[in-house]
Structures are given as C-alpha cells and as structure tokens.
Amino acid sequence: MRTTVHLLRHGEVHNPAQVLYGRLEGYRLSERGQRMAARVADDLSRGDVVAVVASPLQRAQETAAPLARMLGVEVGTDPRLIESANVFEGLTIGTGGGSLRKPVHWRHLWNPFRPSWGEPYEEIATRMLAAVADARDAARGHEIVCVSHQLPIWTARNAAVGRRTWHDPRRRECALASLTSFRFDDDRLVGVGYREPAAGV
Asked: Which domain of life is it from (predicted)?
C-alpha cells in the first residue's frame, strides 16, 4: 500500500526586525508567505491528500489553512512538528552586530554537533519521525500533509535516509513552502522526494 507523507515548510514570515523567532508567539505569514501557502494548496489539492496536520505555531497553522479549506477538512495540530528550541530566540543572528559576535553568547557555541545552543538533533529526529509514522498510519493508501519548520524537516530527512543529523545549516535543501515527501510501501520507506511548488512567488 503506497502512502505519501509530505513535510511542508511554512511560507515566508513577517519579521521586519530580522530576529530568530524560533518558538516565539506572534510570528505570522507575510503577504508573500500567504501567496506561497495558496500556491502550495492549489498544487496539493490536485493530488490525493486526505488530511492536513501542522505545528502549533501561527506561521505553520496559517500555511496549512488554505489547503485544509480546499479539501474541506480541519487542520490537525501535532506538537511534535514544532520548531526546534533555541537559546537565541528573539535575538538577531549573523554578520555585523549579530548576537554570535558577542562573547556573552559564546558559551552556547561549544558543540555544533549536538548542538549546544538548542534542542539536540537526535531528539528532533526522534519526535519528527514519530510524527511522520503516525501521519502515515492515519492516511494509509493516500497522501497527508504535515506543516513544520526548516530544521526539523531537514533533520527528519537526514535521519530517515541514514545520514548524520548534524550538518551545515547553509546546505539545507528546504526552501520556504517546499515539500519534502516521504513515500512508503506499507511501513517501509521507499523514497524521499523534494520540490518547490511555490518557487518564484
């Protein structure tokens, strides 16, 4: 029995301050993010999707909403799909005056393989793959969409195909509103696909 679990990354977020928002409340989709969600919904509504589940965070719920409306289903919520925890939530990251340049934060950067600044990769992989397995069981013989976040999706993909979970964040293949699709024959993973139906929005 062929079942597909689509892991959909949320669309672009309204974040004028350019902070790492992580699990913080109140971060909604931007206007572009809303267009992304609509484009993905149109794409997926032509398939055999029977259910939509999302992270409890606002941006994920808003990304899930257009597809759920098209299908006439309610958006389910699975806390295992949530963004990873990170001690830098609410701070700016990156070059220039970013928080990583300040010595007070260096104590969190000692182990990039765990990582020491947030939720361990292995824990992310465990909760995400459990959510994928439950989604597969709920949609046997059909497709199901789970809306999540970049790091959890990429970590789940690496773990599912037997790659190490630690990685260079700059090399993640998980663009905004992209689909990482796990294909199963019964309970056996037979392939992982990736595409960007909202590219160019």
From this structure: Bacteria
- Give a yes or no: residue 201 inside a domain: no
Domain with 7 in it? 2-195
Considering the chain, what percentage of its residues have pLDDT values greater than 70? 92
Specify the pLDDT at position 101. Answer: 61
H/E stretch holding 184: strand 179-185
Q: Please, which residues have CB within 8 angstroms of residue 7's CB and are 6 or more apart in sequence?
A: 132, 146, 148, 153, 156, 157, 179, 180, 181, 182
Residue 95: what pLDDT? 47
How many Cα atoms occupy the beta-carbon half-sphere of 106 within 13 Å? 4
Please, which residues have CB within 8 angstroms of residue 109's CB and are 6 or more apart in sequence?
A: 100, 116, 117
Residue 131: name the closest of 56, 197, 46, 24 by CA: 56
Give the CATH number of the domain where residue 44 resides.
3.40.50.1240
pLDDT for res 109:
72
